[in-house]
Amino acid sequence: MKDYRIYCFSLRERCLCILLTLGITGAVSWLFYRSIYGIAAALPLFFPVKRLLKNYLHRKQKKEMLYQFREILQFTAGALKAGYSMENAFIQGLQEYKELHGEKTVMAQEFCNIINQVRLNMSLEQLIEDLAHRSGIEEMISFAQVFGFAKRGGGDMMKIFQDTAEKIRQKVEVEREIETVMTAKRAEQRIMDLVPFGILLYVGLTSPEFLEPLYGNIPGAFVMTLCLMGYAGAFLLAEKILDIQV
Predict the structure, then answer these.
(1) Domain boundaries, the chain
(2) What's the 3-state SS for the chain?
(3) ∠ CA(14), CA(18), CA(20), 5° rounding?
């Protein structure tokens, strides 16, 4: 079964990562060094670009999985309220979820697999616990633990489903509020990220004699490397400041 704690690039995402790296290395080599050898020197940028892209896509995947999980829990709670047994409530909840969101989402495929294994007399709570641990999502892990205890001890399953769905909804709303507040700040950060490149491009095109002493010699390359390292440090610091986890 797929371990969602480790994100793997698709072919399209790998191509995107390579194109981003080539674009960044090309811009850095021309603006900071004006040398084709600068491309070789900037190739190690592939690794931080790959890491940043992977972290972004992994967080996005987890948010989508949590939202999908909440939807299935809500549909299942409705089926329990209508009098279905636990296993049949999951089947009914999944059916309603697929009618609304389709069959190709991650949670639709995972719960289809869970239901098929339940029909082969596998333990429902163990299957959900396995999914929760593979997801690496705290809310799903907590739900799986409470669900296992309640199913073995005869707890109020409908209340557990509703409470979990409500907590996930609250978290999603808080994340959306934070994202709304931070949208303007992120836009400002993106503009500031491009300012050094814009300045070098403008000066290089309008007054190239000002930058001429920095190219084609070791002291100039050293100074530009220090500037590039300072820019990279500021970029990573800004990314960390804006990365607010709920």
Answers:
(1) 11-242
(2) CCCCCCCCCCHHHHHHHHHHHHHHHHHHHHHHHCCCHHHHHHHHHHHHHHHHHHHHHHHHHHHHHHHHHHHHHHHHHHHHHCCCCHHHHHHHHHHHHHHHHCCCCHHHHHHHHHHHHHCCCCCHHHHHHHHHHHHCCHHHHHHHHHHHHHHHHCCCHHHHHHHHHHHHHHHHHHHHHHHHHHHHHHHHHHHHHHHHHHHHHHHHHHCHHHHHHHCCCHHHHHHHHHHHHHHHHHHHHHHHHHCCCC
(3) 115
Task: Give the whole-angstrom CA distance, residue 97 versus residue 87.
Answer: 15
In degrees and rounded to multiples of 5, residue 4 shows phi and psi of -80, -5
pTM: 0.78
Contact 94, 112 (CB under 8 A): yes
Task: Please tell me the distance from the alpha carbon of residue 33 to that of residue 21, in angstroms, as a whole number.
Answer: 17
pLDDT tens-digit profile, the chain (246 residues) = 788 888 888 888 888 888 888 888 888 888 888 877 767 766 777 788 888 888 888 988 988 998 888 888 888 888 888 888 888 888 888 898 998 888 889 999 999 999 999 888 888 888 988 998 999 888 888 888 888 877 776 666 777 777 777 787 787 778 778 778 777 778 888 888 888 888 888 888 888 888 888 887 888 888 888 888 888 888 888 878 777 665
| Alpha carbons 171 and 174: distance in angstroms, whole number | 5
Contact predicate 207/27, CB 8 Å: no
- Report residue 200 as tokens: 């070098």
